[in-house]
């Protein structure tokens, strides 16, 4: 009996026990689904995060004040003093790089917008910004226009709203442009609607209302605001030098003494992306560990089923041996059966894992991420399937090959 005939015999044996083959393959499929599904979901989430950072731009950095206590050099430092309006304006005036600089502030992170009887949930971000804010932050205007210098100079009551706010208030039945909404007790005329951004932020950018910076200062009244400065340099290669220059300018603006720690923090877009990629790497390791444990349970179940198969086919093994089948061919037959069952289950598990993983990633990223096909993880899934087949089939195959043909023929 040659190898090719052995393969055919193994396939015939699998086909003759369809129900057992299907149930066994399902065990493997569930294990592979958990492995490929988790890793696909992580890849999809990472893709969404990368898209979000790409929209912001790799050549941007932000200067912000730390709002919480932080630890440096083994000592807990108090939070930074907020960056006030004059700090931001002075930095923008002194920075020599000719970069695009946007100054913004969050007036409220839980505002509510109203239009007639319609109103949003109290989770709208009310932000004051200048005419560079949308460009630097990676927003796109769907309809309407950006702020003009006249809007900013005279602090007019005009607003640019996110797509989610527009859909909630106007339900796609009415053109939002030139309509008047009420936010924080003040009426604003809508001059622009933003395209959907969504992404890893959970859709918070789509629940935004942007008003002129000086209007936001007036609206805040006695509330102490902290201003963020976001800078976009012409090219990525300029960023290192620009960040160093920005740190020096900001220390002068903030009157930080020589030897004193910075009273602010510079956040680079590419640093955030790298940090997120590191976290995703740990998630991949955890996901692989969970999938591996599931597959280990599936391989034990397959081992048990293959042992049952050997017992059921003891007389068949005796006949084969009496006709000249060597122990090697008997081992091959059972190993081939185990591997084929695993591959069938693996293919089904990979397809299910792709669907489940992309569904999870799509829900988390709110449909912002693209459909992910992780070829590397799919290849790993097939390799794992073959390995599981070998692991689960080797002991039953060896046991079958060692049966005495006389005793096997007597088995009932």
Automatic annotation (TrEMBL):
Family, per entry: Belongs to the ABC-4 integral membrane protein family.
Name of the featured protein: ABC transporter
Transmembrane segments: 21-42, 288-311, 338-364, 376-398
GO cellular component, one term: plasma membrane
Domain MacB-like periplasmic core: 21-247
Membrane topology of this protein: Multi-pass membrane protein
A molecular function (GO) term: transmembrane transporter activity
Cited Pfam families: FtsX, MacB_PCD
InterPro entries referenced in this protein's UniProt entry, alphabetically: ABC3_permease_C (IPR003838), MacB_PCD (IPR025857), Macrolide_Exporter_MacB (IPR050250)
Main location: membrane
ABC3 transporter permease C-terminal domain location: 290-405
Subcellular location field: Cell membrane
Keyword hit for Transmembrane helix: yes
Keywords: Cell membrane, Membrane, Transmembrane, Transmembrane helix
């Amino acid at each position: 009996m040659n190898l090719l005939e052995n393969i055919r015999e193994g396939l015939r044996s699998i086909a003759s026990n369809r129900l057992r083959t299907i149930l066994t393959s399902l065990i493997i499929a569930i294990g592979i689904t958990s492995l490929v599904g988790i890793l696909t979901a992580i890849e999809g989430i990472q893709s969404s995060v990368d898209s979000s950072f790409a929209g912001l731009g790799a050549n941007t950095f932000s200067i912000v004040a730390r709002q919480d206590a932080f630890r440096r050099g083994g000592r807990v430092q108090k939070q930074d003093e907020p960056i006030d309006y004059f700090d931001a304006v002075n930095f923008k005036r002194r920075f020599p790089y000719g970069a695009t600089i946007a100054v913004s502030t969050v007036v409220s992170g839980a505002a509510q917008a109203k239009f007639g009887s319609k109103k949003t949930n109290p989770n709208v971000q009310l932000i004051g910004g200048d005419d560079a804010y949308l460009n630097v932050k990676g927003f796109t205007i769907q309809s309407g226009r950006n702020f003009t210098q006249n809007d900013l100079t005279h602090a007019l009551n005009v607003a640019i709203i996110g797509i989610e706010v527009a859909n909630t208030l106007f339900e796609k039945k009415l053109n939002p442009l030139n309509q008047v909404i009420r936010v924080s007790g003040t009426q604003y005329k809508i001059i622009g609607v933003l395209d959907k951004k969504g992404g890893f932020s959970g859709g918070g950018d789509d629940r935004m209302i942007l008003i002129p910076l000086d209007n936001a200062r007036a609206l805040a009244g006695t509330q102490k605001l902290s201003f963020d400065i976001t800078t976009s340099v012409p090219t990525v290669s300029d960023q290192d030098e620009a960040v160093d220059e920005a740190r020096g300018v900001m220390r002068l603006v903030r009157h930080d003494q020589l030897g004193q720690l910075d009273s602010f923090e510079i956040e680079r877009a590419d640093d955030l992306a790298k940090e997120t990629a590191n976290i995703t790497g740990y998630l991949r390791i955890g996901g692989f560990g969970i999938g591996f444990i599931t597959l280990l349970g599936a391989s034990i179940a397959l081992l048990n089923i293959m042992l049952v198969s050997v017992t059921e086919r003891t007389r068949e093994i005796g006949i084969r041996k009496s006709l000249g089948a060597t122990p090697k061919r008997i081992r091959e037959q059972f190993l081939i059966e185990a591997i084929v069952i695993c591959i069938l289950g693996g293919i089904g598990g990979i397809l299910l894992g792709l669907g489940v993983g992309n569904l999870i990633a799509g829900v988390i990223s709110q449909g912002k991420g693209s459909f992910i096909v992780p070829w590397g993880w799919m290849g790993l899934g097939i390799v794992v399937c073959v390995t599981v087949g070998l692991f689960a089939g080797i002991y039953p195959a060896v046991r079958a090959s060692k049966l005495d043909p006389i005793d096997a023929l007597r088995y009932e």
